[in-house]
Amino acid sequence: EYDAPSMKTPVPGPKSKELTRQLGDIQNVGAVNFFCNYEESRGNYLVDADGNRMLDLYTQISSVPIGVSFPSLFSQTAFVNRPALGILPPENFPEKLIESLLSVAPAGMTRVQTMACGSCSNENAFKAMFIWYKVIGNPHSHPGSTNMHSVLTVLLKGPGCPDLSILSFMGGFHGRTMGKCCLATTHSKVIHKLDIPSFDWPIAPFPKLQYPLEQFVRENAQEEARCLEEVEDLIVKWRQKGKPVAGIIVEPIQAEGGDNHASHDFFIKLRNIARKHGCAFHVDEVQTGGGTTGKFWAHEHWGTGDPADIVSFSKKMLTGGYYFKDELQPDKGYRIFNTWMGDPSKNVFLSEVLNVIRRENLLEEVTRSGKALLQGLYELQAQYPHLLSRARGLGTFCAIDARDDVTRDNLILKTRDKGVLLGGCGEMSIRFRPSLVFKEYHAHQFLNIFNDVLAEY
Amino acid sequence: EYDAPSMKTPVPGPKSKELTRQLGDIQNVGAVNFFCNYEESRGNYLVDADGNRMLDLYTQISSVPIGVSFPSLFSQTAFVNRPALGILPPENFPEKLIESLLSVAPAGMTRVQTMACGSCSNENAFKAMFIWYKVIGNPHSHPGSTNMHSVLTVLLKGPGCPDLSILSFMGGFHGRTMGKCCLATTHSKVIHKLDIPSFDWPIAPFPKLQYPLEQFVRENAQEEARCLEEVEDLIVKWRQKGKPVAGIIVEPIQAEGGDNHASHDFFIKLRNIARKHGCAFHVDEVQTGGGTTGKFWAHEHWGTGDPADIVSFSKKMLTGGYYFKDELQPDKGYRIFNTWMGDPSKNVFLSEVLNVIRRENLLEEVTRSGKALLQGLYELQAQYPHLLSRARGLGTFCAIDARDDVTRDNLILKTRDKGVLLGGCGEMSIRFRPSLVFKEYHAHQFLNIFNDVLAEY
Ligand code: FES
After folding, report:
1. Which 8-state DSSP code applies to residue B297?
2. How far is residue A418 CA from its own chain's centroid?
3. How far apart are CA B457 and CA B449, in angstroms?
């Protein structure tokens, strides 16, 4: 450890200021104090990007147990020292974001906010949409101190907590937390609650399509039109109720809900409806993102240059978070905030993962093995129509329905006993979620084993 | 990578079954499929604890990007492979839990559930209390399929979503997520919403004490009695309203709210009130836990053998989560669930951190340096009464108030420019949150510098 503080510049020094400017292009930096050099930091002494060495009595909002870089912990500082990213990011953080997350940013998005899991990613994306809708989207409604105060006193009911809503779809899955419970027991900082509405939100029907999509184009188009009409009705109805829809959230493929697909046309029209009514459009790629559909993001299949205002991710991306357009940058620090705000050690892995994906052309591989898998599923459902139906998929993100839930569960178990691990979703679907190194021959390996199971059944 | 599946036993095999039994003593295992040997797993092949090698088309609910143990990722598999702990835990997981988290379990608690952050820890603890109150605490109210269905159709309003509440305190802080938003947009699985109430919860006043506590014993006891009376009134009122209080949540020291202390007597009486009214008692140690008060948990200072039913943690513990009594074990898998359920790589660090704490007697050190710090703060506030007041603390978890918020912010900045990093909390408090390797001489180092700042002010 060092033996005393040692200061070279005022804090933040020129290097921290420059890094703050750089990071400010990527995300809100309202809460950043200065940047740190964790490699040089030791024990009680935090060294900043300008070489200032400070005795640290704050320790990442009290989250460092035994000082920085404790010798008997590992040498890789990214793993040992988990910073409070919102206030004291490591100095290579902008660079790491650029080489990892931003290198795969969706079309039209230049900013990204890291988070720790899919749930907090979506929740904070909702907050960002509310803030945008209320403060940034509408210049006449800046939160005055009266509003701020009212949040604390009337708890989610006064003018500081606008009646806003998010439109979602039946069968959608956007996180398991119930946090408003947490929020309801949190009374210490007015800023955490401002612009967060109470709950009375519209839910639209998601199209129930027939598969394969190419064979039922007309029927499916009718079903999609019905759902889109309902979406517009709900937006109007909620506006009349005084709870306007600030954002629409949708998955490119409803995953937990049973692998429900919709046409590219459906999503493009939905995006246009959002634009027309002044709602933010939030695409939840927590499960579909990261290459599994054969494109890095499932929404790339839609072929539009302006797919969304917010795209959230987690899972395969190793870190949670969301990309967002410039307009959705919150106006103040601490409005989108928690202790860790993600985990930079995950970015190290993500960079390497992205390198491998590029070097080994894994997206092409996924497209190829996904085709083999889906083709095989088509053949099996033709061969065993009493057991299987509705094979569907994009890349290796495939699913097929069993006759009923009992058959589905049995097929999964029997296939597992022969050495292939499958998952269920929806009421009677089997879902396929291999990783990106799943090759054509793995698909055939599975199809052979599955064929045996079906033949014996 | 391997070239084919290879099966030795049915799945789960005997070893997985035995491990499931072991883990079942620690937490709910209703969702666990089998245990994995991640060291032996490669690419598309997952090897289980019984040596069965399976082609993996599920990949931790789709969260593994480029297969298991990709060679160019690091060799430490705990860091490279983040499992979906709720369904496919690594085989050393029970052992790791026992040697890390359970080795410091609070009195009376033998179970622990890991989570990724403080917010999801508290949220899931709330869920556990609701489930306990509704299903386990009351044998007459098992969730039938009608109830299950009603959750989905009436969305948080029918009998499946009981009107329950959690009592919390003004100034309390238990998480920043707003998740009910997430929940409100989640319609795919009925089990996620069952027993989760809508929001109308009682908030009690937290005692506003005078410091030092020893000098104002009588005045403080009166104030505490007033608050406890209010707590009982609220419990009765909410029961009459038909929204009984399932649990009470409290921090041993209100941290974000401004470092508000209460006497041991207050907490013991509060715990008794909870017991008397059949409410679960949830102590939130997210900020106070991990040794910073001189005991591993702040509630140990109360000196009672039955401090709580649930204790949540995060921050210094490196992983989030909560300890709980046997009775609060949920009745079904997937009721408390998300993809990752924490991160076992954090347990590796935690074990090492606990070793260091024991080996180097860090709790005694904290007590010693905390005394020096608080004594120094008392002296400074006597010397600069126009600037400082209300010094208070337990271990190194100390705080002092400045004259006003502007002075507070200025003092923090000026002290930082001289090389000491401090944090603010509440309206005009400075809080001290050093890590556990903060020694007496670090306290003196800070006090000297702070003295200079105050003298110049
Ligand atoms: S809510 Fe996302 S990590 Fe806790």
Report:
1. S
2. 34
3. 12
**Would you say how long chain B is, in residues?**
457
Rounded Cα distance, A385 and A64, in Å: 58
pLDDT tens digits, one per residue of B103-135:
999 999 988 888 888 888 888 888 888 888 876
Closest of B177, B32, B163 to residue B116, by C-alpha = B177
User: Considering CB atoms only, which of B64, B314, B435 is closest to A64?
Assistant: B435
How far is the centre of ligand 1, averaged over its atoms, from the C-alpha of A340 (Å)?
10
Alpha-carbon distance of A84 to A105, in angstroms, equals: 23
Q: How far is the CA of A209 from the centre of ligand 1 (A)?
A: 33
Locate the chain B residue with the closest alpha carbon to A58. Answer: B433
Structure tokens at B422: 């401090």
Gap between the Cα atoms of A174 and A314, Å rounded: 11
Residue A25: which of A83, A84, A104, A93 has the closest Cα?
Answer: A93
Q: Is A181 on the interface with B (CB under 8 A)?
A: yes
Is the CB of A33 inside a 6 Å radius of any atom of ligand 1?
no
Contacts of B175 in chain A (CB under 8 A): 179, 182-183, 185-186
* Torsion over CA: B314, B316, B319, B325 (sign): negative
Residue ranges of alpha helices (H) inside B280-323 are none
Cross-chain Cβ contact A66/B362 below 8 Å: yes
Does residue B10 sit at the A interface (CB-CB below 8 Å)? yes
Atom of ligand 1 nearest to the CA of A116: 3
Contacts of B422 in chain A (CB under 8 A): 57-58
- B116 CB within 6 A, ligand 1: yes
Q: pTM score, two decimals?
A: 0.83
Of A55, A63, A175, the CB nearest to B420: A55
For B124, the token pair is: 């899931």
Report the range out of A26-40, A261-275, B315-329 with the highest average pLDDT.
A261-275
Cα–chain center distance at A67 = 32
Show the low-confidence residues of chain B (pLDDT under 50): 74-75, 138-161, 177-198
Give yes or no for A421 touching B (CB within 8 A): yes
What separation in angstroms does the CA of A441 have from each of A371, A413, A445, B203? 12, 22, 6, 60
Chain B residues whose CB is inside 8 A of the A133 CB are none
Cβ density class B54-82: b for 16+ within 10 Å, e for less: bbbbbbbbbbbbbbbbbeebbeebbbbbb
Q: Are A151 and A130 in contact (CB under 8 A)?
A: no
Residue-wise pLDDT tens digits, A329-381: 766 655 666 667 777 778 877 888 888 889 889 999 999 999 999 999 999 99
| Nearest Cα residue to B231 out of B175, B172, B300, B288 | B172
Nearest to B285 by CA among B259, B313, B309, B306: B313
From B119, B181, B183, B186, give the residue whose CB has the most ligand 1 atoms within 8 Å, as the site to mutate: B119
Distances, alpha carbon A240 to alpha carbons A164, A233, B257, in Å:
12, 11, 38
Element (H, E) at A388: strand A388-394
pLDDT in tens, B420-456: 888 888 889 998 988 888 889 889 989 999 999 999 9
Measure the CA–CA gap between A284 and B241, rounded to whole angstroms: 38
Token couple for A90: 């490591």
